Amino acid sequence: MRLTVVGCQGSFPGPESPASCYLLQAEEGERTWNLLFDLGSGALGHVQRHLDLADIDAIFLSHLHPDHCMDVCGLHVAVHWNPDGQPERRIQIHGPAETADRLATAYGMPLDPGMHEDFRFVPLAAGRPVRLGPLTVEPFAVRHPVEEAYAFRVTETQPDGTQTVFTYSGDTDSCEGLVEAARDADCFLCEAAFHEGRDDAITGVHLTGRRAGQAAADAGARRLLLTHLPVWNSPVRSLEEAREAYDGETAVVAAGVSYRI
Predict the structure, then answer these.
(1) How confident is the prediction for the chain on average, in pLDDT?
(2) Closest CA to 138 of 21, 60, 219
(3) 116 vs 39: CA distance, rounded Å
(4) Against a cut of 0.85, is the pTM above it?
(5) pLDDT above 90: residue 87
(6) How far apart are CA 188 and CA 216, in angstroms?
(7) How far is the C-alpha of 232 from the C-alpha of 195, rounded, in Å?
(8) CB 52 within 8 A of CB 154
(9) Closest C-alpha to 215, from 245, 239, 194, 195
(10) CA-angle at 238, arms to 244 and 71, nearest 5°
């Protein structure tokens, strides 16, 4: 698998990065599978630095806050009004049950047909995996102040049966679902929007760097990548907090950087 950080700024785009969006790619013979995890504010333009929009196979939305889903509206325009015609297949969008209606409302469209002509909306459910080529994506319910929020555990299975695991936290505070999603993961991409000593009294919203590190330690993850830092956060401070609880390889991501998993 190859992970490319399209956007990693927390809560709203910053001067150096769009909001949340991560491209995960896997090879299957001569075929490359392209999955996006979230498509937040400002991310659509940066996606096009890495692949043609028509080559997106599926988008997995962790939840329906704008910094994780709003650029689907722009993708709708790109697909629906492309003068070369629409692609032969509709892009799959896996998200909470209200995804199709929320996006249509955001764009000022009637709910019927909404964006159903352009996308195939698939409701997520915890414990119900989705198989796309060599990748299996399993959603885990996590702790965030919305009706549905998910972390994703992605397993790549090679022809010889060997497996590699990538986990993306979405937005969450500490919870059992997060630890189970990251159990023995080769790479754990985890939000760290809060700071100890400033935000740690707030519960049920976000992780601090220390909480992210503790989740990685509890899960036995082999590598921790911190993301979703707002513009007012110090990456150095987030990294130091994570290392208080986790002694594995740790880094703070940046937009445009890729990782081999």
Answers:
(1) 97
(2) 60
(3) 18
(4) yes
(5) no
(6) 7
(7) 10
(8) no
(9) 245
(10) 140
Q: Which two tokens stand for residue 243?
A: 């290392």
The dihedral sign for the CA sequence 140, 168, 239, 232 = negative
User: What are the pLDDT digits (tens) for 34-73?
Assistant: 999 999 999 999 999 999 999 999 999 999 999 999 999 9
As given in the structure block, the two tokens for residue 173 are: 């505070």
Residue 89 has pLDDT above 90, yes or no: no
pLDDT number for residue 88: 75
What is the mean predicted confidence (pLDDT) over 149-174? 96
List, in order, residues 6 or more apart from 110 with CB less than 8 Å away: 104
| Nearest residue to 116 (alpha-carbon basis) of 137, 86, 146, 139 | 86
pLDDT of 200 strictly over 90:
no
